[in-house]
Amino acid sequence: MVACWVGDVVTLTINTKRRSRLDFMNNDPIRNTVRYYIIVLLAVSIISTEAFSAEPQTAEEFLTRGNELHEQGQYDKAIIDYSDAIKLDPNNEVAIYHRGYTYLLKGKLENATIDFSKSIQLNPTNLKAYYFRGVILKEKKEYQKALADFSKVIEIDPKSALSVLSYHKRAIIWIILRNLDQAIQDSTSVIRLNPDFGAAYYLRGNSWQLKGNNKNAIRDFSVAVRFFPNTFELYESRAQCYEPIGELSLSIEDYSKAIELKPMNANLYIQRGIAYYLNKDYGDSINDFTQTIQYDPKLAVAYQNRAIAYQTIHKYKPAISDFKNVIRLDPSNYLIHDYLARLLSSAPEDELRDGTQAVESAKMSLKLSNGRHVEAIDTLAAAYAEIGDFDNAIKYQEEAIKKTTSPTVKKKYSARLRLYQQEKPYRLPQANPTESSIEPLVQ
């Protein structure tokens, strides 16, 4: 069966050999009507296909087809059509902008920037061209130029949706540039224009946090959580703000929620472990540092914090082992050489002490700190006392007393000096966790 056009009439030619089998349909008016419409639709389809397949001839036709290809995700073909439109009409600002946007989607930022700039030249009020050029400049870390483009969007139409986004992008840049007051101001503008823009609360909360205003930060993070209840970073940030204001239970609760959402994140266990430690939940603290090590066996800070927690509860043997692991992973850490030397020279258990190694570790701490770590001088005195060299113990203890400026520390060092003068070594106490805790845990 072949359908063809003769003037305005559709004719149907049927193979004569098959006519007899179709004759019974000729007397059925309903079927004849259906057959007629099928024939008409087929003919229209042929015409439409031929019309669509015709090559565009004008700039507008190339632009139209380019837009259709763009919508279909055929970006390379769309760019070709936009380029052909521009060849026919070099000042076709719409085609230039659309090509720039398509370049942006393909990651061809230089080409996109050129087209956005040309679009702005032809149409100085093109908000989208300013905005997307600003986005590219921000990614290229050309922050001042990006700020200028976002500001232009706001200047042209301060209440537009793109202005809301421009305020937000500006706030991000202000945080990068550490202009926190301006970041807070821009995030507040976003919230004023669109109270449901959840990311603005998060960003403003970050700005408050960086300024040290934890209460305001908590307030904004709490709003942001309602918009993004499954974003672990929000709970982590709020937990970090609860901690310094003494709300340790709330901090632990938020860290736990963050871990629930991101269970393989070693850093979250580190932070919750610190919160547990500050809350004097030493067992839970050690468990979290241990979990961190299981996820990341090369994370020196996890061994360091666990060692300090162990020392706080007088488990000096595992503390020594962890300090040695820190030195293995981070041999230039002068603090850890000092901490290890302290335990090797002053641990209550005889089998844990090693005065000779303690002297070496204390000297290494001083070497790595260029002699500025006064505590290592005190430790070196204790190490010499452990090996029975009380002359050097007295010498270095007196030096430590001279160099410290804290009255409390001077008093502590003077008590140790009296021990050495009596030819007695210093020993870490077994019953006072506060005394045996040597340094804050490391974030």
Description:
With 443 residues, this protein is mostly helical. Among the domains are: 1-52, no CATH class; 298-443, Serine Threonine Protein Phosphatase 5, Tetratricopeptide repeat. It is 74% helix and 2% strand. The protein contains 24 helices and 2 strands. Strands 1-2 form a two-stranded antiparallel ribbon. β1 and β2 form a beta hairpin. The relative contact order is 0.04.
Highlighted features:
two-stranded antiparallel ribbon, disordered N terminus, 443 residues, 2 strands, single chain, Serine Threonine Protein Phosphatase 5, Tetratricopeptide repeat, mainly alpha, 24 helices
Write the layout of secondary structure elements.
Layout: E1 2-6, E2 9-13, H1 16-26, H2 29-53, H3 59-71, H4 75-88, H5 93-105, H6 109-122, H7 127-139, H8 143-156, H9 161-176, H10 180-193, H11 198-210, H12 214-227, H13 232-242, H14 248-261, H15 266-278, H16 282-295, H17 300-312, H18 316-329, H19 334-346, H20 355-368, H21 374-386, H22 390-403, H23 407-421, H24 433-436
Antiparallel strand pairs: 1-2
| Percent range of helical residues | over 70%
Instruction: Name the average pLDDT.
Output: 88
The largest sheet is: 2 strands, antiparallel
Number of strands: 2
End-to-end separation: 80 Å
Main sheet: which strands, in order across?
Answer: 1-2
- CATH H-level homologous superfamily name of one domain: Tetratricopeptide repeat domain
The CATH topology of one domain is what?
Serine Threonine Protein Phosphatase 5, Tetratricopeptide repeat
Low-confidence stretches are: 1-52, 433-438
Label the overall shape: elongated
